[in-house]
Amino acid sequence: MTVIEARGLRKAFGTTIAVDSVDLRVEEGRILGLIGPNGAGKTTALNAILGLTSYQGELKVLGRDPWTHRDQLMRDVCFIADVAVLPRWIRASQALDYLAGVHPRFDRAKAEGFLAKTAIKPASKVRELSKGMVTQLHLALVMAIDAKLLVLDEPTLGLDILYRKQFYDSLLNDYFDRSRTIVVTTHQVEEVQHILTDLMFINRGRIVLDCSMEEFERRYVEVTVHPEQVVAARALKPIHERQLLGRNIVLFDHVDRQQLASLGEVRTPGIADVFVAAMGNQASQAQGGAAR
Amino acid sequence: MNMPSNAMPESPLDSQVLAPTDISANRRLYWSVRRELWESRSIYIAPLAVAALILAGFLISTVHLPEKMRAALALNPMQQHELIEQPYNFAALLIMGTTFIVAIFYCLDALYGERRDRSILFWKSLPVSDLTTVLSKASIPMVVLPLVTFAITVVTQGIMLLLSTAVLLGSGLSVATLWTNLPLWHMSVMLFYHLLSIHALWYAPIFGWLLLVSAWSRRAPFLWAALPLLAIGVVEKIAFNTSHFAAMLGQRIGAAPEHAAHTAGSMSMDSLTPLTPGQFLISPGLWIGLAVTAVFLAAAVRLRRYREPI
User: Fold this and answer.
1) Residue A16 pairs with which residues in a beta bridge?
2) Structural domains in chain A (count)
3) pTM here?
4) Complex confidence, ipTM
């Protein structure tokens, strides 16, 4: 089943084009990482998917138009916008009461179970909690909703490493199964690399890269090149080259691994490295050039 | 895609129909109103605090109650009635004034505050429509606050009467004059009628306007609520040297139409005058006001859909 389908999705704020004719297709059971620099249009694209902003073009989420049917869509979709959106006055118990009151797919016992594992007391108000605990509370609420699509927009912004790790661990262990779909944007790409099934780079409102993680691992190879092989490596047209502690680290796209093994130490690159390469190449190419 | 689409038991359309624990619109509205009460506790704390102050003041005044009652016996029935009823009406007026102010500030913050603290992103992540949200917020000044006012006023007046009775009995005076001049049941009906007709219905466009401004403004909703009205009045005065708009506003805020309810003009709870709900219900001012309220609220619903966090 296709969870999100967009064709020619476009959104402009005055003369600034935030999302520029984006085609997007997310299937059920995937965990898609939407990666892009600040102001790339990630949040605008997510807002369109969540029915928070109007748009031009065609967009269907779970078969519905999000802008006109947001309230119905939200029975099957959850989102965490960022860490600071839970109202500061609400108590944990009130948040549970309210969700149980308005959400047909909210399982209160499940949420209480998640909260019992944290230091959050039912009577605690959001304003009394630390940033990390607010995220724990929000995640507990969201994970207790039997939703088909979960959208996370910078969910771990400003959290320390422990909370960030715990966030993704509980998401994978206690929530994700093959019938759910997750879309996540984050700048901490290293932390999500191992959980993603699909990857999408977005820059200046356009999709720069769209591939599954298997494809990503097949396509991209990073080689720490032996000094004497640098010229040979450059001959194979790497997409990026950087220096680290006096050694040349070269990134290849669509080059045979066997061939590269002779040049030096071969490994799968981090998303961040490919991202830097893709953004750099895009800047040097003609406007709107795609790296796919 | 590792799962064929037919393995998925329900398509989105089915799930809408099949969802076993679907929640009715009324239940969503009910919980949304409760949410408002959790957030804005001034809705009941402010009138309760005023009621406590009134009772404290009244308790002190009972020191002079026996003398006052003796003096009252010498007056004619009309004056006697006014003298005895006066503190009770004053209490009702104070509590009503308090809840009216609470209603104004509540409305101005209702759709503005959630954008300012970004919590609108959380509320919009739930299956509650903008219409339900705006209706729940409109119901606070139009339904909840009148009911709160009624309950607190009646209880306060009841306690005042019990206090007076105890003091009079303690000083060996008869309570007959007091009780015959204070038909509490009739006063409560009058109060209820006043709250329903004036605070819920006649003031509805005021609350609708404030909610609209609260949904629209990016900053200083109070100024945005007041300045345009002032501007219209000023322009009308300069351009045509008339003040119809100001007169209309004054009538809306200060008093109901002459024939609406005898209680409205003087804001008194005089229990001797009969009710005139029929005339109130056929007055065009009421219906025009309600139509305008509906337009304001519809605009607020639409704005909430478009507006993003500030």
Assistant:
1) A13
2) 2
3) 0.86
4) 0.87
